[in-house]
Design a protein that fits this description.
N-(1-d-carboxylethyl)-l-norvaline Dehydrogenase, domain 2; Rossmann fold; alpha/beta; about 50% helix; 8 strands; 12 helices; eight-stranded mixed β-sheet
Length: about 300
Amino acid sequence: MNINKVLIVGAGTMGQQISFQCAMHGFETVVYNHRSPSLEVCRQAHQSFAEHFQQVRGVSAKETDAALDRLSYSTDLPSACEGADLVNESVLEDLAVKQPLYQQLCEYLPQSSIITTNTSTFLPSQLADSVVRPERFMSLHFVVGLWDAPIAELMGHSGTSEETIAVTTDFARAIDLVPIRINKEQPGYVINSLLIPWALAAQSLVTNEVASVGDVDKTWMISTGMPMGPFGLMDMIGLGTVHSVLSNLAQASGDAQQRKDADYVKAHFIDKGKLGVKSGAGYYTYPDPAYASPGFLR
């Protein structure tokens, strides 16, 4: 099976980056979102990515213009699904949102389409019952800051066919990412199995007033030489996603600290519309976060 047309469902931070990566590597790419304003934000992000690729990564204007020409945007799901060979979903981490969406996708997609999810929270087996052809469903998980962390984690469920895994692996390579095969279902894949405990530890330090956001990030950045700390990264991921992950973990584990952390994020950020980079404010204020200033590490 050849992948020619890609449908990205969700126009948030990850949907923006995944769709641009696909278009940059020659794929006709449609971004679907039910809200026109979200698609306009996505379109503007793609323009910014094109400028970044020209100015920072040495890509020609001809190449980025061609990528932008391959991108289209739609609020109409039936037309967005038409002819799509592979779908990747990056919507809210909520089963009540994802499951009905998959049922709708299956109404409109060609029978040969592969449906993949970029979920950071759920196992593919938790979602597979919502698709008509579960053998053509799996996780294809990307890392925020896609071109700086060029990996794609591939995780099937017990019913995913080897053909689906093989085609999706080839697709990951075709968009210039390193495929990481997850051999059995693992909450968090590889990257989040490492990342989530780190982020949870950081959040608990702030929730419990042990240290400030700035001092936690400063400690990490000085100690490791990394360009941002856990709170800068959480802002990039999006605090809506962070809150969903924390809430799901707290519900699954019954852990009082995780519930306290989820409630903290909700009260201080979600309820105030502060969702991180995409809203202009979260733990930091954007587009010029304090952690990027020359004096931050002093």
